[in-house]
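As a representative case, we now present a protein record of this kind.
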Amino acid sequence: MHILLIHQAFASLDEPGGTRHHELARDLVRHGHRVTVIASPVSYLTGEVTHVRTGGEDGIVIRRVFTYQALHRSFSHRLLAYLSFMTSSFFIGLGVKNVDLVWGTSPPIFQGWTAWMLARLKRAPLLFEVRDLWPTFAIAVGVLKNPLLIRMSEWLEGFLYRHADRVMVNSPGYVQHVTDLGARQVELVPNGADPDMFGPVDEGRAFRVSNHLEQNFVVMYAGAHGMSNDLGVVLAAARLLEDVPEVRLVLMGDGKEKSRLQAQAAQMKLTNVIFLPPVPKNRMAEALAGADACLAILKPIDAYKTTYPNKVFDYMAAGRPLVLAIDGVIRQVVETAGCGVFVQPGDPDALAAAIRKLAGDRAASAAMGRNGRGYVEQHFDRASSARKLAGILEEMSH
């Protein structure tokens, strides 16, 4: 079967960012399928051009198409980036021959329109994947404010749910939302991790030495530095932790808010916060092994209670205890696994207290990390997700 994936933010294993789709596509190829990906050359995490030509990796054909480079500017510029990819991916997609199934994904939701049009023109079934609830999240966080754009986005969202042959979600928290808006058949293929990508816990020595963290209790946040990530709360917690000299908070990644956060940390004269650039997924194991605990955080918005953040499963696969400042379905996973400490989102005092607790009992922290690793192996192994996805695609194509 030849699968065409339309995915502006597709990230390969040699890039920073979420690599769910590269990992799933790689396993589909191992199952004997062909996968062609149409993607942007602009990294969604850094906003920089990371690929100047198309190519192939792990048997996957990846075609990079023109995209306006402005992801980290204003919303209007970001909208132009989305619309430019929507247009260019459509015309390039027309030239991809012998497609048996089109796989669209959101966000950005505009590329879903491309996937729907290509599926209908090629008379192929459409699998539409919902990776987060856009535009719901964008409205909740205040990124999307224009009433006309909100109405248009909500119309497009409902249209795609109703007209896709199947809708796939990566969190159980999304099922009710997409069903209420007209999705006919919903498949859950949850976020997870490949435990084999994360080696023994002692591999982080080189990371700690290179960043002068040998004697510290390192709490790492790895991911986007955007409006949703609420990293200002982390800086406030860092101030409260200045009396615990061994604690270091490492913020690794990139995003629109990073420069502002760096300026804020400098103004606060924080000495226990370190900003690091993002690393490719194939180097993430070394970085996470250099941490003693890991942090997942989002703004205290009810909509975020529905999400399964990718980074949580990577942290668990790396055998690291979590400080979780996200409520909802992901809290249920962490508490069931016994792999971390939950704190109410938006509360720097609670965040600081949780970090104190983990730093004060290294043995208990290490046990939580082992619990998380074991739970991912049993319940959220990427290979199992890939097998389920392969079954769904094969069923749709018959």
